[in-house]
User: What shape does this take?
Amino acid sequence: MLAWILLQSGQNSNHLIGGQIRAAGWPLLKLNGSASMVLEGDEYPCSATDVLPKFLRYHAQDLVVTNVCHDHPEIYPTPEAYANVFEQACAQLPKHGTMVVNADDPGAMQLPQFTQAAVRTVGFAAQAEARITKFRALRSGCHFMLGGVKVRLQLAGKMNALNATLAMTAA
Assistant: This one.
């Protein structure tokens, strides 16, 4: 969503997306020489011989964190070990960077203490700076309020509303 928002706003960034995209003709990889790059990174190891989490190789300037919920127990045996790699990613952010965090996720909300970058919180939670209110599911997607602006998505569900708000805040 972030790469799409940047393109729609005239910022022609590079991108590498790890999942499927519904939009016809939207490439998973776009390299155009732009100074900016949107990478969908995760905590999974780079390879069998390079166990460093992928997102630690990127040295991000900005970071969007959707959640920190113990996953990949074959790699991270405890919730603490799992959270630690996210803490490292946050610590890598430069002071001039920005971290956008899901305020609805307790694990994600533990991360701001590990960065010197500016932090923006997003979500349905009362403490979110960019707070989603008046959410309504529709047959063809959803709509909600973000600040004083009505947002309508052609994607259904609260998770898509949250992802869109994270992306809009990061843009």
